[in-house]
Write a structure and sequence with these properties.
With 195 residues, the chain is of the alpha+beta class. The protein has four helices and four strands, in the order H-H-H-E-E-H-E-E. It has a domain of 101 residues: 2-Layer Sandwich (Alpha-Beta Plaits), CATH 3.30.70.60. A four-stranded antiparallel sheet has the order 1-2-4-3.
């Protein structure tokens, strides 16, 4: 080999080693590299304005959340609290007995039936109770108004009125009342999809 070729070969090897060292040598400032912004100052100001608007709505959203939470707590006060669905149904019958007892003359429940317990939605359930009474029309109206005025979440679900005694002007009433209960009181479906 000629001396010129050896020199060229030596410079090529040295430059190749230096380029490999430069490419693969770990840099201590690699994680702290600053990338030049491609956005203009105007874009940054617009972005800052949007962030300020979003931050300004946070107190309003917190106030709305507080109001909605308060409304929910107020509504959930009326949920019938019981350990079992049968106890919830018994509470509804007690309410109906009290409403009948408050009438003049008192209205007695002639018969009662425990209805089904079913899901109202994902969070609540519904219990049904049916009662049979004989009363005057004015007493029925008073009982229905008293039922609507109760703090519990109960309401009439079905109402059937028949003529009972034309001489005393009484009517036979079959009243189905439903009440809202926690979902845990609703029995799960039997089978593969039970939870």
């Amino acid at each position: 080999m000629s001396p010129g070729f050896r020199r060229a070969l030596a410079w090529t090897v040295v430059s190749g080693i230096l380029s490999l060292i430069w490419t693969y040598w770990p840099s201590s400032s690699a994680g702290n590299a600053v990338v030049a912004s491609t956005d203009s100052v105007g874009m940054a100001e617009k972005h800052l304005a949007k962030l300020r608007e979003a931050a300004a709505t946070v107190p309003q959203k917190q106030e709305i959340l507080r109001q909605v939470s308060g409304d929910l707590a107020l509504r959930e006060k009326g949920i019938i609290v019981a350990d079992t669905a049968q106890q919830a149904q018994a509470q509804i019958i007690q309410v109906l007995r009290k409403l009948g007892h408050d009438e003049n003359p008192p209205v007695e429940i002639r018969s009662q039936e425990m209805g089904e317990v079913r899901a109202l939605n994902d969070v609540y359930g519904e219990v049904l109770v049916g009662v049979q009474v004989e009363c005057g029309v004015d007493q029925l109206v008073n009982m229905m108004a008293g039922l609507a005025a109760r703090p519990e979440l109960i309401a009439s679900n079905d109402l059937r009125v028949t003529s009972a005694n034309p001489k005393t002007k009484t009517i036979g009433v079959h009243l189905m009342v439903s009440g809202v209960v926690p979902r845990k009181l609703v029995p799960g479906k039997k089978g593969a999809g039970a939870s």
